[in-house]
Amino acid sequence: AYERRFPTCPLIPMFVASDTVSEYKSEDEAIHVIERRCKLDIDAPRLLKKIAGVDYVYFVQKNSLNRRERTLHIEAYNETFSNRVIINEHCSYTVHPDNEDWTCFEQSASLDIKSFFGFESTVEKIAMKQYTSNIKKGKEIIEYYLKQLEEEGITFVPRWTPPVLCKSESSTSHTRRPVSPAINIPESATKESLNNKEILNTSSSPSEPTAGTPDDKLDADYIKRYLGDLTPMQESCLIRLRQWLQETHKGKIPKDEHILRFLRARDFNIDKAREILCQSLTWRKQHQVDYILDTWNPPQVLQDYYAGGWHHHDKDGRPLYVLRLGQMDTKGLVRALGEEALLRYVLSINEEGLRRCEENTKVFGRPISSWTCLVDLEGLNMRHLWRPGVKALLRIIEVVEANYPETLGRLLILRAPRVFPVLWTLVSPFIDDNTRKKFLIYAGNDYQGPGGLLDYIDKEIIPDFLGGECMCEVPEGGLVPKSLYRTAEELENEDIKLWTETIYQSASVFKGAPHEVLIQIVDASSVITWDFDVCKGDIVFNIFHSKRAPQPPKKDSLGAHSITSPGGNNVQLIDKVWQLGRDYSMVESPLICKEGESVQGSHVTRWPGFYILQWKFHNMPACATTNLPRVDDVLASLQVSSHKCKVMYYTEVIGSEDFRGSMTSLESSHSGFSQLSAATTSSSQSHSSSMISR
């Protein structure tokens, strides 16, 4: 039955084709080993496939059938991206040692992601989702082919016997490799588990009872008032998990409503719910999340520029949170506060949501355990796809998904622009399938028609900016002034570390003392990418190449090669005796960057060797007709105290073996904006892409 899924299987849509690579059969036909190369169409975001440069991935699968020992071993590993991602899977079908009519099935897999264009977490999510769905379908597929065999009249396959028949059955036919006993999986509330009459796994070991007993009941009024409809099995799961926490957990025991959220998130599988709940309780204790509303005051920047807030409730009594994401300067907030402060603020919003759910439960007299979120995307543009900002968003989603399951009752996304599908492609793999089903997306003014806002929110509380009559006190967002941006060092000193560090470094640039960064390239055609903000003064950005390595800068802060200042470091790598054109060469035309500009770009390297990124003080040119400086030049020079400039930068190299036209490098966009929909001008050269918006 298993062999019938080759060369392709209609029940596995992603399994496109397979080719036999090698095949071996022993003379006595007891051993049959076949190796295949399988072509898969992975269910991954189209954008991720574009970045990776592949439409299909290839796996090598080796099946070893041993008719003598009655075992089938299946080994598989990935051939595509094997230098970046290592996937190994092993499955085995064996005969149960205590009952020859039972077949044991065991499956294990490992995933090791070394690097994947900055999307490591996304790939891990996709791989786990794909693996989980395959496990669920595995039994369904084998049953399908067993039924197909029965319909063809094949209900019995004779056991293998040695070529030379003996009077008694050969002892080898009873010799079996030791196997682990069959595991009885705890029942869950899903239909799958309830209807599963195990064919492959029929262990008789006792399982925990799933229905409630007379001593295992909650008060019916309490359930109706605070928890909602529960089946006897679900009620029993809640009580057993709560009892386990009371017996084993050291610390604050969460309320029944909170425990119930984790059970629902795992379809009332107690073991899975217990695992994620314990991890969450440890996380809450470690970061003092229980006290965040009482002990932490959001910085003024968040209060002024974070365009989100609570706004009454929806028709079901759920608290309503409004987020004007399109009007929010995500990059400015990250630069002014760092990712830790943003995460802490989002956590405080979720904690406030839990508190409001409790209050609304009392007000409406029925259980309310989740809230509704209304997201207005008017104003969303490519600037919101700024890569570090997207990374921060994905990390925040991960933390919230892990620690606040089943808290989102409904998500209404309004006025989605053309750029929204790109953002959705990046974000959706991180969002649980159950959560995704609660999303309602409206483009343009569709939300005003049938099936729109009025189906979920009373007319009296529709916010004014959406055409309603209710004044909404949510901040309007807008641009965070660059004067509020802080350096990496300043963010480093903040005492609010939670789970990440800024990826940006700060540097000072002086007249006659540029700041330089060395990047060694082993393979030609690698891609150097950069992202930097000019925080103060005007600079010239250059890229140089040298076949020999420059001398490392001196560690002495007073030395000629290295200057340390409160505003950032200054490192000079190009020796003063080096001559341009002889010792090193310029590989791109100089790019003049003004104060306040944000620059993103890339360079595809032509040669191996050493590349130097340089930020140099920009000298204002004198007027062509006179030796006297222009008024504008004088005013500009007065703004740069002591001829000092400041930049914050981040660089990354994408290897040539994996680069296929990554959006990160070839479609980079630069954005320091004075308006949310700023006009964009570009400056691009051969083998380089850099864009600036003012």
UniProtKB/TrEMBL annotation:
Task: List localization entries.
Answer: Cytoplasm; Golgi apparatus
Q: According to the UniProt entry, which residue ranges have a biased composition of type Polar residues?
A: 191-210
Q: What is its main location?
A: cytoplasm
Q: Which InterPro entries match?
A: CRAL-TRIO_dom, CRAL-TRIO_dom_sf, CRAL/TRIO_N_dom, CRAL/TRIO_N_dom_sf, GOLD_dom, GOLD_dom_sf, PRELI/MSF1_dom, SEC14/CRAL-TRIO_domain
Keyword match Cytoplasm: yes
Q: Which residues does the UniProt record annotate as the domain CRAL-TRIO?
A: 298-474
Example GO biological process: innate immune response
Reply yes or no: does the keyword Iron apply: no
Entry-linked Pfam families: CRAL_TRIO (PF00650), CRAL_TRIO_N (PF03765), PRELI (PF04707)
Q: What is an example of a GO molecular function annotated in this UniProt entry?
A: RIG-I binding
Q: Which residues form the signal peptide?
A: none
Residues covered by the PRELI/MSF1 domain: 1-154
- Annotated GOLD domain ranges read 500-653
Q: Where is this region: Disordered?
A: 167-216
Q: Which GO terms describe its cellular component?
A: cytosol; Golgi apparatus
Q: CDD domains from the entry?
A: SEC14
For this UniProt record, give its keywords in alphabetical order, as a comma-separated list.
Cytoplasm, Golgi apparatus, Immunity, Innate immunity, Phosphoprotein, Signal transduction inhibitor
Biological function: May play a role in innate immunity by inhibiting the antiviral RIG-I signaling pathway. In this pathway, functions as a negative regulator of RIGI, the cytoplasmic sensor of viral nucleic acids. Prevents the interaction of RIGI with MAVS/IPS1, an important step in signal propagation. May also regulate the SLC18A3 and SLC5A7 cholinergic transporters.
Subunit details: Interacts with RIGI (via tandem CARD domain); the interaction is direct. Interacts (via GOLD domain) with SLC18A3; the interaction is direct. Interacts with SLC5A7 (via GOLD domain); the interaction is direct.
- What is the recorded name of this protein? SEC14-like protein 1
Say which species the protein is native to. Answer: Serilophus lunatus
Lineage at the top is: Eukaryota, Metazoa, Chordata, Craniata, Vertebrata
